[in-house]
Amino acid sequence: MPHVVTQACCGDASCVYACPVNCIHPTPDEPGFGTAEMLYIDPTTCVDCGACVTACPVGAIVPGHRLKPEQTRFAEVNAAQYGANSILGEVRFPVDMAKRLPLAPVATPGPLRAGPQHVAIVGSGPSAMYAADELLRLPNVTITMYERLDAPFGLARYGVAPDHTATRAVMHLFDDIARHERLRILLGVEVGRDLTVDELRARHDAVFWAGGAATDRPLGVAGTDAVGFAAATSLVGWYNDHPDFADAQFDLSAPRVIVIGNGNVALDVARILTADPTGLESTTIARGALDTLRRKGIREVVVVGRRGPREAAFTLPELIGLVDHQDPTIFVDPADLVGVTADPDNITEQEKLALLREISQRTYTTEELARPTIRFAFGLAPAEIRTENGTVSGVRFARNTIAADGTATPTGEILDIDAGLVLSSVGYHGVAVPGLPFDEQSGVIPNDAGRVVDGDIPVPGVYVTGWIKRGPNGFIGTNKTDSAQSVASWRHDVETRSGRLSRGN
Ligand SMILES: Cc1cc2nc3c(=O)[nH]c(=O)nc-3n(C[C@H](O)[C@H](O)[C@H](O)COP(=O)(O)OP(=O)(O)OC[C@H]3O[C@@H](n4cnc5c(N)ncnc54)[C@H](O)[C@@H]3O)c2cc1C
Ligand code: SF4
Ligand code: SF4
Question: Where in the numbering of this chain does the 4Fe-4S ferredoxin-type domain appear (predicted)?
């Protein structure tokens, strides 16, 4: 039985280069790579060699015969993308065997046609680590990495949910990179506070900014200053032991929590808040958070989307992981799915809607109904956080109707839902860096393929990668191709001598 890519896939494409028969798609040079929710193995051409299993940093690839019951749905998800064994009968990545290479190409960089280069990287999250890995392939590069926190790896450590142990295992790969003798990591050094960007530029041949998108997108409604309202990020930081949230406290005694926004972070939060705390004991969850979760009074977490189920921001692998792995008591109102049809060219969307339909038909035993439940609600835009004496009492929503093209239009109907805790999970936004240009609107450092630009003018020797380069989207592995692009731009500039800082000029 062929190998199967499962939930933990973070899209770094390592498996693509390991596969001898080129049966994992989309590859980084194929359309759809940037938007794919995971990579997929073509079951008809996989020769079961296992090379991809070793290459995968997060253990996402499983031989078909070893799939656990909660992973079996992924066999169909992989196959559906190729039409093979698919109920959908579509071929997403038609494979011309004649064009197949006997071995997948592995790009190896030639020597750098320039003298020794000392490069600064700001940040130590996934984009920084992948940039370092790419740069260290060149023998005459040394790197100093500056990280403001006392522990490295950014959101791979402080964002990824504690029960996503396979995904968190990517930190082993980062550990390997961090051990490289030409990489020095300075922890507890914040650029902008402890040294300026100009000082950094003066000391290095090039600077890569990989500082991530540090703030939450504001919700923009009244009541967000009330006790009991928080950004989901702070709850994530609290349960992941992020030093910035060491003093955070959450009152989990109320029966209902509302999560506004329905991306993967919202699913993480809903899953952790409804999980049996005993099952979290063996994870890296902060012990204080675990103690609070043991005493929780939560009966229901409502995850609310402004638009419809088709536009839901969570990915299919995460939905499958939630539904099949933890097997929570989870509700979707069948009325929300009436008349909703998937894009016929979008297999992932079709499967997502099919799974939501399946959930909407589920019935539960009395025992299952006694557990904390997750409820998906769609077509509800927050109008106001309701408060009593400065404390959250719920959310007032304006109901939307969703057009076929996904546009949301208010119906005029108002719906109040009571809650003791309201978490906003509507996305992230980068923060401006003194000394570098910044696009307030999109929250990124303006750049051309990773070269920082001020207007149309390149800022010599300064590059950017990760969330602060492209915005807060994609997976951990997406940062690998992103960083490779920025490093390729730097290399081109160094070799044509257009990217050196004033230090050596
Ligand atoms: C809650 C959450 C859960 C997620 N879960 C998953 C998941 O399960 N699977 C998945 O594939 N992806 C997940 N992601 C996405 C993934 O974490 C991101 O794609 C990735 O972390 C972005 O990498 P980055 O390096 O750009 O930013 P970050 O990971 O944010 O790293 C930025 C680093 O720069 C440091 N820094 C910032 N400013 C400075 C400064 N001035 N000086 C020095 N250091 C600085 C920060 O401290 C941080 O360590 C999740 C994201 C979030 C928010
Ligand atoms: S098992 Fe071998 S042939 Fe199959 S996807 Fe993995 S590397 Fe490719
Ligand atoms: S995480 Fe990377 S190596 Fe593993 S399956 Fe996904 S793309 Fe392939």
Answer: 1-29, 37-66
